[in-house]
Amino acid sequence: MWRGPYEEGTLFFHLDEFAKDHPKDLLAVLAVNGRPTDLQLLRDVGEGTIDEVVGAIDEAVASGLLVEEASHRGPRYSFSHALVRQTLIEELTAARTLRLHAQLAECLAVRAVAHPDRWLEAIHHAIEGAPLLGFDRAGEILLAGETSVEQLG
Question: How far apart are CA 130 and CA 117, in angstroms?
Fold first, then answer.
C-alpha cells in the first residue's frame, strides 16, 4: 500500500521506526480499543512484560505517535492523530482484529465487575469479537453488562 512521502518527521517514518524495535501489538491493541487506554489493559492484552510495555509507550510518546493524559485511574494513552489509528487498523488482518476484540472483551469484562462504567466497552468488544470469542461467551458478557447497568439504574 502506498502511504505517501516517507521522510524523517512524517507519521509513517515514526510508525516504521517504532515497529523496528517494538512489536506493533501494543499499537494494535490501542487501535482496536479505539479510546484512551491504560497501561494495565495494554499489558494484559498486548505482548511483553510491564517494563517492555512502559518502555515502548515512553518511546511512542517521545516520537509523537501517542499522547499521555491524566486520569483518576492513572495515565491513559491515545494516538496523537486519527491518521495513526486509521493506518494501523487498515494494516490489521480480520483474524488479528477479531483476536484483539475478543481479548479486550475478556479483560474489560473482568474489570467491569469492579468498575461498572467499563461494561459498555466490554459489550462492544464482545460483539465485535464474537466469532472468535464464541457467541455463547459474547452473550454472557452482554447479559452481565445489562444486569450491572440495570442495577446502577
Answer: 21
Residue with cell 468498575: 115
Which residue do the cell numbers 488479528 mark? Answer: 96
* CA 52/CA 8 separation, integer angstroms: 25
Amino acid 108: pLDDT? 96
- Report the DSSP beta bridge partners of residue 37: 77
* Least-confidence region, from 101-105, 112-116, 131-135: 112-116
If you average pLDDT over every residue of the chain, what do you get?
A: 85
Enumerate the H helices of the chain as residue ranges.
Answer: 11-21, 25-33, 39-45, 50-63, 82-91, 94-114, 119-133, 135-152
Mean pLDDT on 53-57: 89
Taking alpha carbons only, the member of 105, 108, 116 closest to residue 147 is 116
CA distance linking residue 62 with residue 14, whole number of Å? 10
Beta carbons within 10 angstroms of residue 118's beta carbon = 19
